[in-house]
TrEMBL record:
The gene is coaBC. GO terms for biological process: coenzyme A biosynthetic process; pantothenate catabolic process. It comes from Nocardioides alpinus. CTP binds at residues 282, 292, 310-313, 330, 348, 352. It catalyses: N-[(R)-4-phosphopantothenoyl]-L-cysteine + H(+) = (R)-4'-phosphopantetheine + CO2; (R)-4'-phosphopantothenate + L-cysteine + CTP = N-[(R)-4-phosphopantothenoyl]-L-cysteine + CMP + diphosphate + H(+). Its cofactor is FMN; Mg(2+). Pathway: Cofactor biosynthesis; coenzyme A biosynthesis; CoA from (R)-pantothenate: step 3/5; Cofactor biosynthesis; coenzyme A biosynthesis; CoA from (R)-pantothenate: step 2/5. In the C-terminal section; belongs to the PPC synthetase family. In the N-terminal section; belongs to the HFCD (homo-oligomeric flavin containing Cys decarboxylase) superfamily. This is Coenzyme A biosynthesis bifunctional protein CoaBC. Its EC number is 4.1.1.36, 6.3.2.5. GO terms for molecular function: FMN binding; metal ion binding; phosphopantothenate--cysteine ligase activity; phosphopantothenoylcysteine decarboxylase activity.
Amino acid sequence: MTSRVVLGVSGGIAAYKACELLRRFTESGHDVTVVPTAAALEFVGAPTWAALSGKPVSTDVWSDVHAVPHVRIGQQADVVVVAPATADLLAKAANGLADDLLTNTLLTAHCPVVFAPAMHTEMWEHPATQANVATLRQRGAIVIEPAEGRLTGADTGKGRLPEPAEIFELVSGVLDRARLHQGGAPQDLSGLKVVVSAGGTREYLDPVRFLGNRSSGLQGYALARAAASRGAHVTLVSANVSLADPAGVSVVRVETTDQLREAVLAATATADAVVMAAAPADFRPTSVSDAKIKKADDGSSPSIELTQNPDVLAEISHDRARPDAVIVGFAAETGDATGSVLDLGRAKLARKGCDLLVVNDVSGGAVFGSADNEAVILGADGAAVEVPRGSKTALAHVIWDEVSRRFAE
């Protein structure tokens, strides 16, 4: 669905990345108005923005005065995205300053506003910047946590602009929720700390081979992205996933179930909610060969002894670091002689001790690697929410709706 997007660009070296973000918006059919600051034009010129958006570009309030652009642009927008948002721009926005077209637009916007900061680590961590970010979030704006990585010059640290593709995905989710809530999508996870696990763990047999599973991590990443778009501070524990880091999310990478357990336990100590969407291996070899296991000349097969891995979901559910935390598990079931998919799901919910269990029917390999999903969300309170087949992002938001509802209660 076409939306009116205002893309604000402030004066940082990451301004060139906003060209890709603009292209993604226009290729998706959105009507995009680019509003750069004068400093942004020192990095990327007005002809580039005009060519990519198909619209004239202005930085001041004196062009086309008869159309009152300093008021009209913000009033008519469905979403305003500022990428990159410099420390200077964040300070102006937090203090209500309006000395150019972009800052005027921010004051007149009644739609969701998303800031994607980009600056050096010292500038991001400065108490003044952190206070400005807190003020903007308190007012309902979405301020994405910057990524970690290479900055200007040889510097490395937190302050890098998240990848344009991930900013686009986050903003798309914001637009979807705004339409669903008729423009008033709440930041119902604002200030909360949440932990999401994603992917499938590996248990090594030797330096080459491992036991694993088919989890792609797509659902866990959709959950992390959705939580960030609703204002949460998100830690994503990612097991063997080849996906770009979601915008505004801290990613901890692991391989084995033991590593996953260690990372989850560390992150859940202060978490308000935990969603275990990862697929940990149930078993691991009792011993791992230091050298590659060779084929036997006589054609015989090696005997591999397995032992059970720790049950991370049951552990964090029964021995909670915070009694008031909401814990969500996933159950990929196929049904068998002992019961249906939902029967097995209900039994697992009681056994694990979590608050919610998302039950997937994976018969025939369904769900794995797919962009879509369907599920039944079972609650320890007896609730059952059926989610029809749709995008994994849509399912992620329903899961967070259920988590948010329990916080409200």
